[in-house]
Design brief:
signal, nine-stranded antiparallel β-sheet, about 140 residues, 9 strands, mainly beta
Length: about 140
């Protein structure tokens, strides 16, 4: 976890303040490779997945909408006004996600999972559609 904290500090130095943006994304499909399939790439998709991808300054978040399934506990941070990275690591599992919104209403998504027992180890690369904008409710602390 110290690595994640240091990573956040380093990116915080280089990330300029930005306005808040939130996009509704869906129709994610592409290719994935899993340990259980000898890392052979095959077609992959997130069926019925709808997500809110939010960027507010140096921070960001990805939330699922409705019945979309998503792994929690990732620490998200923006690396530009339209790109987020999500990080998670513990003694059993490491995850890294990227979400990037293009200027022509597409989302680019990647995910890497490396598990100690290789049960969940996988790599995914997908594209999807930006179908709208969503509202961000920021909490201000005094």
């Amino acid at each position: 976890m110290r690595f994640l904290a240091m990573f956040g500090v380093l990116f915080g130095i280089y990330m300029p303040d930005a306005t808040a943006d939130c996009w509704v994304v869906t129709n994610l499909s592409g290719y994935g490779a899993r340990a259980s399939d000898n890392y052979d790439f095959d077609k992959d998709q997130i069926t019925n997945g709808v997500f809110h991808v939010s960027i507010y300054g140096k921070d960001g978040n990805v939330t699922s909408v409705g019945k979309s399934v998503m792994a929690g506990e990732l620490l998200y941070m923006s690396i530009s006004s339209n790109t987020l990275i999500g990080l998670y690591s513990d003694e059993r599992l490491t995850m890294l996600e990227t979400w990037s919104i293009t200027h022509n209403k597409k989302v680019l998504y990647t995910k890497v999972i490396n598990s100690i027992d290789n049960k969940w180890s996988a790599s995914r690369s997908m594209t999807g559609d930006v179908v709208g904008l969503c509202e961000i409710k920021l909490i201000q602390y005094k």
